[in-house]
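Supplementary Note 3. Input sequence used for the single-chain structure prediction.
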Amino acid sequence: MEWGTGGRIIRAMADLRRQLREVFGLDDFRPSQREVIEAVMAGADVLCVMPTGAGKSLCYQFPAAAADGITIVVSPLIALMADQVQQLRDGGLPAEFLNSALSADEQRGVLAKLADGFSGMLYVAPERFFAPGFQRAMVSLRPALLAIDEAHCISQWGHDFRPDYARLGEARKRLGDPPTIALTATATEDVRRDIIEQLHLREPKVIVTGFDRPNLRYESRRVPKTSGKESELLKLVAEQKGSGIVYCATRKAVDEVAAMLQGSRARGDRAVVAYHAGLDGATRSANQESFMSSATAIAVATNAFGMGINKADLRFVVHYNLPGTLEAYYQEAGRAGRDGRTARCTILFSYQDRYTHEFFIEQLAQTEGADPKVVAERQARARQKLEQVIQYAQTHRCRRQMILDYFGEDRRVGDCNCDVCAALADLSANGDGPAVSDEVALLVAKLLSGVARLHGKFGVATIAEVLAGADNERGRRWGFSDLSVHGLLRAHSVKRLVAMLHRLIECGLVRQVDPDGMKFRPVLELTGAGVAVMKRDQPPPATLADLAPGRADVAEAPAPRGRSSGRRAERTVAPLVGDGGDPDAAGRFERLRAARARLAKEKGLPAYCVCHDRSLKQIALERPSDLEALERIPGLGKHKIEQYGRELLSALNDAQ
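The predicted structure, written as discrete structure tokens, is reproduced below.
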């Protein structure tokens, strides 16, 4: 079969790599591309989950080039179809598109080609299947392949559900149930199941190539007030000299941020363009062309921008507003670094961002004709996904690992350069990881106690005032001065305590919540991890190792005379050998450390997660004889004693 002006002949794919070079000018397949292509060419239905930039389009374009007949490609990217089709034509492959951007005469021309037996790729938007003119043409169309791009849009549990996509299973039947490939960069396991069910795929070959993008540096910067985002963005733009995208949640925010960057010196001589659906078509096209043709331009856009754009050299993606789901974040951040070089993906996180998404979630109830039960389910799922992305923005875990876990990929991240892992590396004092000092552990416990004693009824500022011992009319009215935690950290300013509490939020020990009737007034409550750290059953996360200021700044004032601090006096660990201490105790301590190192290695944990040096020193000095006695050692809760107690006692006895 002869296709294209070059007279290229494509026959049986005996040598796929040779055909890849001849038809597409590529030397070799990327990981998993060949597996997908071979499955499609064997006539199987395929669900392909492949990261942005991994080459999804080749997975249907290659089989389409080998097919004898028409391949229908479903895509929501109306604004980009003309460019995609032109690129195929430039490569000698016949291609057409049919969407609302064409005039009536142009649409009739494409339909006439279909009636004459067009053979090649036809790009259509999902709603086209239900337009009267195309429905008549569908009667005679029997495509060799149906390719559905951005297939996550078919699932109401996905991050970008589109009702027209939900009807594609019906359209597929009307086309004669052709072999089908569904492609997406973002689909959790439940979304994958939904895609298969909605499209009625027959025993599909599911190929998930992985979600890891090691070259992307994920980071989240907490900005307590939204007014501070401008200065943070300007810093980022000044630091990143290449091209990038700044995503905003609303059109208004796009216009404001674009104008701010255009008037700033931080951008240097780079062009800054805006892109959203409220701009007229000519302006959007001109701005997109300006962005694509420059190696340094910055686009400020709503979330759809970037889908299908083949710009591999993006050096940064900034989310000026929190995305609504981790799927959306992964897809949008994944538009950076498609050339394999390092790129930066930053969220500017402010808790107030959640209210924009909560408004969008409430608007789901306005969907005309929607089943109230289905709407309620979608709203509940959307709220759950919003909480997950907020947790991601505040996590003290490796961000790459959290993304892989979210998508169900069973592998462990190594050599990560996300902001959390970079902070751990910077703090690391030895091979066991950064040590959280006893001073910091005590400070964190006091902060958490302050949160606990306010019983989830007050926000950051109030808790900081209570811990600082503030004496004001509001505090007297609520009886704060009677609390055991009042003035517990009076050596620190309220401002510094607010910053410390935000650090606890970021690392997952404390969370902000909105109780009913208190919109826009988030209060603080402990998480499960926060309770464990407060009780000293586990150490604080290593990212808090730098929480305490210099020693000269933290000598706490004594509690006011006549008042109890509400806590037991700290037990003092006597000095060991080298500090004028007991040589025998020092020997026991070293044996205990060796036992701790073995336990840590077996569990795959840093040594400080088993127990701190302070606890080991106390064991070495007090020489507990059984598990019950071991429970009296500070820093060893019941759970840790169940896990490690016998081994520690054994090491202690060996030392004796």
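The first strand starts at residue 2 and ends at 3. The CA atoms of residues 470 and 492 lie 11 Å apart.
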